[in-house]
Amino acid sequence: TLMYFNTKYFILKTVEQHSQLAFSKITKQTRKNPGIGKDKNCTIRFLRLYGQVQSGLKVTEETYVEQLENPDNPLQCPIKLYDFYRFKCPQGMRGPTDAFYLVPEPVVAPNSPIWYSGQPVNKEVMEQMLTRILLVKDVQEAHAASHISAY
């Protein structure tokens, strides 16, 4: 599911782009919700990935893409899933050069503090997953919309 969200919202289209992800490249931030009415004074959380752009555009410090939280459906919220995943990963795997996608432990109890090994998901498995994700209509529409808004 994280790979799906990262493909859709961070516009990551290749295994190489996904392989370059690291916890240190993704920041969790908060800002005022631009909504109106009762949501006017609320804040919204989001994940921001710096330096990721569509081809043909220059990468700068201010270049970024975002994943917004989904407060209406916590089960489909990228922020909650990211927090949970980070919590269940080994703490030593959260550095700037460490793999983002880790192999799940073969057997874990629901209350176990660690669900993932220190081993990165291999590129062949990522390729298989990404091939399926890129076929999803929502992902194709998000990528098409990002291409249009980039120009």
Automatic annotation (TrEMBL):
Matching entries from InterPro entries are given as: ZMYM2-like_C (IPR021893), ZnF_MYMT-QRICH1 (IPR051284)
ZMYM2-like/QRICH1 C-terminal domain: from which residue to which, for each copy?
1-134
Q: Does the keyword Ubl conjugation apply?
A: yes
Query: From which residue to which does the signal peptide run?
Result: none
Q: What keywords were assigned to this record?
A: Isopeptide bond, Phosphoprotein, Ubl conjugation
Q: What is this protein called?
A: LOC733326 protein
